Amino acid sequence: MLSAKATCNSHGQDSSYFLGWEEYEKNPYHHLHNPNGIIQMGLAENQLSFDLLESWLKNNPDSAAINHHSIFKQLALFQDYHGLPAFKNALVEFMSEIRENKVTFDPNNLVLTAGATSANETLMFCLADPGEAFLLPTPYYPGFDRDLKWRTGAEIVPIHCSSSNGFRITKSALQEAYQQAQNQNLKVKGVLVTNPSNPLGTSLSLHELELLIDFISSKNIHLISDEIYSGTVYCSPGFVSIMEVLKNKGLMNTEVWKRVHIVYSLSKDLGLPGFRIGAIYSNDDIVVSAATKMSSFGLISSQTQYLLSEMLSDKKFTKNYLRENRKRLKQRHEMMEKALQKAGIRCLKSNAGLFSWVDMRHLLSSPTFEGEMELWKKIVYDVGLNISPGSSCHCSEPGWFRVCFANMSKETLVLAMQRLSSFVDSMTKESNQSRRRQPLIGNPRRLKSLPKWVFFTIVHYRKVGEERYVVRCDDQLVSNNKRVDFL
């Protein structure tokens, strides 16, 4: 008696990304009421500069417009889906400010949506028919499986990126993904990238951006640049918008210019996900027209638009906010990564975002995605941290995790790192004890010349003429020029 859409299982809710959230909600950490609960490190939310927003509101009480009868009545009555002109003007100026005013945006090309989720789905409706595909570099935000595919019927084909080059996009990876789509009889309509990347926390290089422009030009397809983290770049290299690349390459007012679209939001840069402020920017008049009509299914309240138009029009505030927010993000990022390094855990070098891409491959019981899920469950249930496994982000290499750092207090992050450090220590001890319990395997004659020690660990190896091993045992060193069979 229900529709196929209502009963299908293609939403992606069974992903480990969402399952971790469910476990957190069952047992959320609270420093007083539930100190042993799960700490939420799977939420890419920026709470580090919330005090700056509260301070502005305190100093600008009239911005809420509740106390002014004429403004309140104007906002409470009907508004069309084009949005308040004052807010659209303030928003495009804020977008330009983030990009150091190297590019400008026309408010007539801006479509307001209820968050970036709605913006990405609306673009899918505008650019692809059911069964047509977009190429996405991996790893990518787990919610894209829902946002891009669930209701639109569009398909995602991964562009497999590797840790060998820091998960950077390459020409060969783009070509392989395009060929894979053709092998599956899928018509490719475009490429979607996040810049800066979620979950990597890295901004796309100029080389990657130019590579993408050349690729979509040669294939005659679209490019969506999701730039919702553009204001979170806290160290070099800086952020380069796709619009800046188009301008510098002299591609304004060309066919390629019309096939490049930007998604933006105030959820990350301004830390206001609950306000549901999203936007599509496109130079294609047909896309703008169609997306504007579709936006009637997810409008932003007039009061919210009025409030934020007042806030974003305050240039002194926006300048100070962007500077201070970047400073705080950098400090928090360094704080977490130093704690991870102390625990023997490395991260991908990043410069943006609200998270780190963390390498835990050395902690896997086996170098498989089964091993990754085993480790993830231990971290969620035993350690009490909800982090996002790389497999939920479609990473092709098991053992990577996205760990968020900006949605909690400094004290909570310290506790989270203490928990993780203790867990790593316990795993190391268990591994050492397990090795000690294993029998010595090897040729007795080859071991005859060595003292009758039981436990050996290679600390150095070099080859000079014949194979040479240096062995540590009980803090003593013994060398043997003959080959030795080790555990």
Q: Would you kindly provide a written description of the structure presented here, covering whatever features stand out?
A:
- Its cofactor is pyridoxal 5'-phosphate.
- Its EC number is 4.4.1.14.
- One of its GO terms (biological process) is fruit ripening.
- The protein has 487 residues and is of the alpha/beta class.
- It has 3 domains: 4-50 and 323-436, Alpha-Beta Complex (Aspartate Aminotransferase, domain 1); 59-317, Type I PLP-dependent aspartate aminotransferase-like (Major domain) (Aspartate Aminotransferase, domain 2, 3-Layer(aba) Sandwich); 444-480, no CATH class.
- Helix content is 41%, strand content 16%.
- It is built from 17 helices and 16 strands.
- Strand 15 (466-473) and strand 16 (476-480) form a beta hairpin.
- Helix 14 runs parallel beside helix 16.
- The longest helix has 28 residues, at 315-342.
- Mean pLDDT is 88; it is low at 444-487.
Number of strands: 16
| Class of secondary structure makeup | alpha/beta
State Rg.
Answer: 26 Å
* Anisotropy-based shape: globular
The gist of it:
With 487 residues, the protein is α/β, with parallel strands linked by helices.
